[in-house]
Amino acid sequence: MERKNILDVSWGTIFKVFVTVICLYFLYLIRDLIIWFIFGLVISILMEPLVILFSRRKVPHTVAVVIVYLLIFGLFGYLLYLAIPFFISEIQHFSEVFPNQLKEYLAEISPFLEKVGLEALGDFESMLENIEQYFQEMSRNAFSTIVTLFGGILATFFTISLSFFLSLEKGLMEKGLIIFFPKRYEEYLLGLWRRSKQKVTGWFLMRIIGVIFVGFSSYIIFKALDVGYPILLSAIGGVFDFVPILGPMVASVLIFAVVSVESIVKGIFVIIAFGIIQLIENTVVLPILAQKIIRVPPVLVLIALFIGGKLWGVLGAILLVPLIAILFEFIKDFLEEKKEEVFASRFPSEENVFD
Q1: Domain boundaries, the chain
Q2: How far apart are the C-alpha atoms of 291 and 278, rounded to whole Å?
Q3: Rounded CA gap, 104 and 107, in Å?
Q4: Would you say 324 and 303 are in contact if contact means Cβ atoms under 8 Å apart?
Q5: What is the pLDDT of residue 120?
């Protein structure tokens, strides 16, 4: 007798699937707002230690938040006000000088290339024109590039404003966890949130200290080796160092490309010195800081940088790392709990054995 398989799906199940699809589609539509909210939350977490510092000195919480945001973003804006015109002029000067320096360098090595059957000047003429046009375009659009880097004026303003209001509401996330989750999970979730905040703050603090160390050390080395554009190159080395693993690699290529036009030997010495600075940072500076700060595994950092960069650019690559750190903390707790359960099932306590 032939058997018939009948798929019985209730209207309730269909309705739940329909509502789920609608909710997911709605979240997709407001994905930018969700991303801005997450970034605003991360910024508010970073501001919290300074707010607490002022609050401990008997400053009201609201006043402390206003002071911290005015100090941080006022200082940041002032530094940009001083730095942007300088870097624009440096880039413009570099775009004018670099093609000529490269042409002179190729003219010097062209006899050697001709001996091995390569044409230097003829093959590189069009390349020089493209390089010159690229640097001129980059110098003209330097300011717009900086604005685009931070995701636009609207997104930046919204994110900062949101982080400000999140900081104003004291213990907002803690209250949300208490309201939306059962009482039995309250203590664990609050502890997880505290550890996650420490991880977020610690990671950014370590990166900032690393940026300062690499930038300052690079400037001293570049000045000692009489390298052109020492401020610009040391700034490139420091800023790119904020992005772990990939940042120093990209900075090394850029620095070597610029210095080697002046002198190949000097370029090699500069790269060796820059590598030593990176080695000192990774083996001395960061481990000392990590004694009190729990770091995210490098593999997770690399994954977060790749995903964040692909989805939301440079800002996403930087800010997704703390979010991965929070997720890592949760997964670590979950795995430890599962391990304890397995251990308890395989090795019962003495009381259970002798019962």
Answers
A1: 182-341
A2: 19
A3: 5
A4: yes
A5: 47
